[in-house]
Design a protein that fits this description.
The chain is of the alpha/beta class. It has 13 helices and 21 strands. Strands 1, 2, 3, 4, 5, 6 and 19 form a 7-stranded mixed beta sheet that branches. Helix 1 runs parallel beside helix 8, helix 8 packs antiparallel against helix 9 and helix 10 crosses helix 12. It is globular. The chain starts with a strand and ends with a helix. It binds flavin-adenine dinucleotide. The site of flavin-adenine dinucleotide has 35 residues, from helix 1, strand 2, strand 4, strand 7 and helix 3.
Length: 464
């Protein structure tokens, strides 16, 4: 079995930054990612066969990603790409899946930098072809230079609507409307936190310019409440939302579209941290259940550290800073550097992180999905797409005695499919909380177990 000193799961900004700082103090890192190329979500790369003729046309974020990737290739970090971690076993042994084979990797220290994914909210018709997440649309246009459709409506909450709209426009799409669930008046009073966030202003301006130039209607306090079509999406119904984001009766109108991209922020990817036995805490503004950690990014599980969005949604700069601290923390845990040296090395990263956190907290508070969106889910609405479990079946499970999400899982199969509850987990939790009158943090999370991601039986049979 292969053995390494430090394994990092996730080749996004957090994982790459962790590997770089660890490597700088003599701790060689092996970074694993299921994507064929490094970069994570924000620095998602195109396939190797694609040639970029004009890098400057791809914007500031692309350049920033290239700079990080060049540092990584110069540092001689070992990358295991196209490789999924589907299990973590005691003592710190990772089950890896690549192609048709599965291997084990033993590590002395592990950094989890597994990021996040779109937070979805079901509504009637959300499973129609043509309805997708904002992140799904972005992956197509950014990673493959493919447009998801030609008449597109974007809906949800938070700043992620902006880069996706700008990237779709750049790709030649027609955006029918951008629907932001919050209203600008709710942003008042937060202006102080924006002070000195020049980089964020610059980014927002880069995205808003093409949106304004294309005269895309941006409507606040509205969202998609239903999608309709024969074989695929043809039309969405839009409604105004009240304070709690309940649709206002009588405010509905229709928009013709072949694509609807919807996302209400991000949910944190905690499957592997739960497999490792790490403690978590509930933090709705930061993306739900986040991995608890100390000031060196060490979790409650021995020799397991965490960095980036897995500790709460805070954006790329915070992910890079946390990754750097985790890399130093890993070297400290293995006794490769003194506490004083570690503190000195971590100081600039801590300063940067300190500047980002209040901003992230503010965004989380403003844009976290509100309870009224649950009113969109009719009895017939599919909640768990993998196992095709409807809201009525989830409600029946609650009526028959389920008091937490795992009670629903065992009675109705929600969360038992291919995605293992990554998409429906947060929604089932909200439905159980509402149905039983408990706070959402009391209804638990789907229990994690290997196999965390789909693996063929042939691959498991080949395991060394
Ligand atoms: C869909 C999506 C799109 C986003 N786009 C933007 C954007 O355009 N602009 C912006 O400012 N921010 C964006 N963000 C926020 C962005 O995630 C962060 O700013 C930043 O990328 C976080 O870095 P990270 O390293 O923590 O996580 P990520 O960049 O998400 O990296 C995590 C990595 O872990 C890997 N991974 C997870 N589980 C496994 C496993 N079991 N086995 C192997 N590999 C695994 C993933 O493949 C991924 O590459 C986006 C977030 C999401 C979820």
């Amino acid at each position: 079995m292969e053995q390494v000193d430090l394994a990092v799961i996730g080749a996004g900004p957090a994982g790459l930054s962790a590997a770089l700082t660890a490597q700088a103090v003599g701790l060689s890192a092996t970074v694993i990612d299921e994507n064929p190329r490094p970069g994570g979500q924000i620095f998602r790369q195109m396939p190797e066969a694609f040639r970029v003729a004009r890098p400057e046309a791809l914007g500031h974020t692309f350049q920033k990603g290239q700079a990080l990737l060049e540092k990584v290739s110069g540092a001689g970090i070992q990358l295991k790409l196209g490789t999924t971690v589907w299990g973590v076993f005691h003592p710190l042994t990772l089950a890896l899946h690549r192609g048709d084979s599965t291997q084990s990797l033993r590590c002395r220290t592990l950094i989890l930098a597994t990021g996040a994914y779109d937070h979805t909210m079901p509504f009637p018709g959300w499973t129609l072809p043509g309805v997708m997440t904002l992140g799904g649309a972005q992956a197509l246009v950014k990673g493959q230079r493919v447009l998801p459709g030609t008449r597109i409506v974007l809906a949800g909450s938070g700043p992620f609507l902006l880069p996706v709209a700008a990237q779709l426009l750049k790709g030649g799409a027609r955006i029918v409307a951008i629907l932001e669930a919050t209203r600008p008046r709710s942003w008042l009073g937060k202006a102080g936190v924006l002070w000195k966030q020049w980089e964020r202003f610059r980014e927002a301006w880069e995205y808003m310019r093409p949106i304004a130039a294309a005269r895309v209607p941006v409507r606040f306090g509205q969202t998609i409440v239903a999608a309709r079509g024969d074989q695929a999406l043809e039309e969405v119904t839009v409604a105004s939302l009240d304070q709690e984001w309940r649709p206002v009766p009588g405010s509905e109108y229709a928009l013709e579209a072949d694509t609807a991209c919807v996302g209400f922020g991000f949910s944190i990817n905690t499957q592997l941290s739960r497999l490792c036995g790490c403690d978590h805490q509930y933090s709705p503004g930061y993306g739900g259940w986040v991995v608890s950690h100390d000031s060196w990014q060490r979790t409650s599980a021995q020799n397991v550290l965490v960095a980036g969005e897995a500790t709460g949604i805070a954006g790329v700069d915070a992910a890079v800073a946390e990754g750097a601290i985790a890399g130093i923390g890993a070297a400290l845990s293995l006794g490769l550097i003194s506490e004083a040296d570690a503190r000195r090395r971590a100081a600039p990263h801590r300063k940067r992180l300190g500047r980002m956190r209040p901003f992230a907290e503010m965004l989380g508070e403003l844009f976290a999905p509100r309870e009224g969106l649950l009113d969109l889910i009719t009895d017939e609405t599919v909640v768990c797409r993998c196992e095709e479990v409807t809201a009525a079946e989830v409600r029946q499970a609650i009526d028959s005695g389920a008091r937490d999400v795992n009670g629903v899982k065992s009675r109705a199969r929600a969360g038992m499919g291919l995605c293992q509850g990554r998409v429906c987990g947060a929604i089932v939790a909200e439905l159980v909380a509402r149905g039983t009158g408990q706070p959402v943090e009391e209804v638990g999370v789907f229990s994690a177990r290997p196999i965390a991601k789909p693996v063929s039986l042939a691959a498991i049979a080949s395991m060394e």
